[in-house]
Amino acid sequence: MVHIYYSCAFQLLVEECKKNDMQFNPVRMYADFERAIHTAANVVWPSIQTHSLSLLYVALSRVTSIDGLYIVPKDNDNRFYHGRKNDTSIISLQDEFRRLSLNTLSTIGRTILDFMNDRKKLSMVTFNCQSLRKHVSDLSDPAIDSSNILFLSETWSNDDENIDIPNFDCIAKFKRKNVRSAGVAIYQKSNNTSNIVTSNMDILLRHIREVDIGQSSIGDICAAHCVLDDGTNIIMVVVYISPNNTVNKIIKFIYRRLMIYGRVGSEELGENYHTLPLILAGDFNINFAS
């Protein structure tokens, strides 16, 4: 069914049907015409010279694709009369369109991409999935495609579940058992030159041993040790904190699991872990009033 606008266009279509001996139901056709009054995949416009520019704009702007626009000339007159003369009523509008054409619209997405591409540094994105399996398609985005590392929280996926993200490899993940709205993961770009020294590190192994004894109700955490192509070592950590925890509980939870990267914990082990840059990302669900 071809969707049309304005009674004159409807009448033209009816006449064409009669001329070509086509079967049609005028009542049904007009009902379809009324339902199509906003937008349509196909629009038929009778090229009538007396139509105003504003009416022409309303008619032609309702089609959703140029391929679906049909301009039907009257009496085989293929001349398009509109816009051939300057209309004083729209001069200011035309001037504004010219001005806008000289100023490229800067979007937030374009600004982020320019920021990432101009610096050619390690780019990371943090994303709360609320089910990675359900929303993995949401990760198809120019900014994400240009990133090196993804920090994901609320993956809702168990440790034995593998979820593929195009062009990314999972290097670390963890989720508490018997907690549905939980789970964290770190994904690395497949062609990334950075070297992941350890996928889960001792921090995750300690957490798993603690789970065997008594699972923490505070949150999930996993980490990876990354060595950049210039030799820089970075500890990357992603955290998900369950809601309704106090700030004090959250601090203790993070401190216990990252203790070796503090000065005291590092010195106790006789290491210099506290000198390593550490990136902590994720969803903390912190109520600073608590």
Question: Overview of this structure, please?
Answer:
- By secondary structure, this protein is α/β, with parallel strands linked by helices.
- Helix content is 32%, strand content 21%.
- The chain contains ten helices and ten strands.
- It has helices at residues 7-19, 26-35, 53-60, 91-101, 108-119, 132-135, 142-145, 201-213, 247-257, 263-268, and strands at 43-47, 69-73, 124-128, 149-153, 168-174, 184-189, 195-198, 219-227, 233-241, 278-283.
- Strands 3-4-6-5 form a four-stranded mixed β-sheet. Strands 7-8-9-10 form a four-stranded mixed β-sheet, covered by helices on one side. It has a two-stranded parallel sheet with strand order 1-2.
- It is elongated and about 90 Å long.
Question: Topology, please?
Answer:
Blueprint: H1 7-19, H2 26-35, E1 43-47, H3 53-60, E2 69-73, H4 91-101, H5 108-119, E3 124-128, H6 132-135, H7 142-145, E4 149-153, E5 168-174, E6 184-189, E7 195-198, H8 201-213, E8 219-227, E9 233-241, H9 247-257, H10 263-268, E10 278-283
Parallel strand pairs: 1-2, 3-4, 9-10
Antiparallel strand pairs: 4-6, 5-6, 7-8, 8-9
Short description, anyone?
The chain is of the alpha/beta class. It contains ten helices and ten strands.
